[in-house]
Amino acid sequence: MDLNQSINARLNAATAPASGSSVAGFFYIDGIPSKGIWVDLMPVRSWEDIREALEVAFPNAVVDEILMADYEGSILKPFYSSSCDAFSMTEWADFAEDLEGSSLDIEVIEAYCSNFSYASDCEISKIEEAYWGEHDSPKAFAEDFAEQSGMLSDVPQTVRNYFDFQAFWDCELRHDFWEADGHYFRNL
What we know:
The protein is α+β, with helices and mostly antiparallel strands. It has helices at 3-15, 47-57, 89-100, 106-113, 124-130, 138-149, 157-160, 165-171, and strands spanning 24-29, 32-40, 66-72, 80-81, 86-87, 131-134, 177-180, 183-186. The longest helix is centred in the N-terminal third of the chain and has 13 residues, at 3-15. It is elongated, with a radius of gyration of 22 Å. The model is unreliable at 1-16 (pLDDT under 50).
């Protein structure tokens, strides 16, 4: 590989998230973003994992300070601080460990985490407790909620047809629940 090919390969790697991963971070060293790479964060549990990836990508560089400049996947939002290019590795490692044992789809967890700025708000146990399912609209959620709770079970069908589920969402449920990407969560 000649010098131009090497430079192009590094530029391409530096400007695109890790292939196949929807959860990746762009880490760089020594305050120089051109000395950076995208890293798939699903298997990462320590700074040593990031350090090894950077040492492989930049074999002659001294890896002193590691910063994170960007991320792919809204699940990472609570673990990243753009004001100082910092990543909360300890909280990420705990979260990723719990994530492996969760029965929820990654899309549900991403929808939840995209609404928070602090890692402590995105504990897997909280997400599992808060999750109430996926629905096409607030009206559909309100209909399902009414059905599941049995609140209209004693109401004759002829009267039930006049129940305004959109108004039920607007006036009642939206205070106790919130929606993100079609997923509904209870306020805890």
